Amino acid sequence: MTVIAAGPCMVTYVKGDRDGYGAVQIGYDSGVRKLDRPRTGHLKGLGLFRHLREFRSEAKPQRGQTISVASFKPGDIVRVTGVSKGKGFQGVVKRHKFAGAPKTHGHKDQLRMPGSIGPTEPKHVFKGTRMAGRMGGDNVSVRNLEVVEVDEQNNLLYIKGAVPGGRNGLVAITGEGEVEFIDAGTASVKSDAQKEPEAQEAVLEVNETKKEAADSEVKKEQSAETLDSEDTKS
Fold this sequence. Notes:
Layout: E1 2-5, E2 9-15, E3 23-28, H1 37-42, E4 51-56, E5 66-67, E6 77-83, E7 88-90, H2 92-96, E8 133-135, E9 139-151, E10 156-160, E11 171-175, E12 181-182, H3 184-233
Antiparallel strand pairs: 1-10, 2-3, 2-5, 3-4, 5-12, 6-9, 6-11, 7-8, 9-10
């Protein structure tokens, strides 16, 4: 499995009729201290985000709402998009899986050569001819990945299979279904409501402790009174 720290992401802009299409722009990774002035003005009142990405959507959320891993559940089939690992300048054998030349019959130092690249009549190389060049660093999507576990407390997604890119890379996770937009106020209210039962239990425990202490003190006083009465009788 691959563990992905997903979100929370905040809605920074909502596109509609004014822009000609419907889309939602979200921001991720608020661990940045300073941005340029245009982006700082664009994010006014929301904080600073290192990454801004846009997704086509007909939903109309409000600016400032957040998206968390709660939108996913175990068993969902998702698509993960990211930038693949860069491998630098590579030859045709590694880049395009060419077989290379035979090792004998006069092919000295040509085992991994590309060979002929086409006829001589056009006097130029056809566009798209497979040759040596930069490999990797492309936008890649891996489909049909399964969500195994969702950790809402730590904002983690456990996905079965490999995802494009290296460690600490940025990926986009998309799947079927509705996205759950959460208000900041609602999230705080839920967290307070979750804390209330714990506080009530703590108060009950304190009250029970005080009651036990008071009962023990009453028993001690009663035993002292009985001892005093027995001494008086004697």
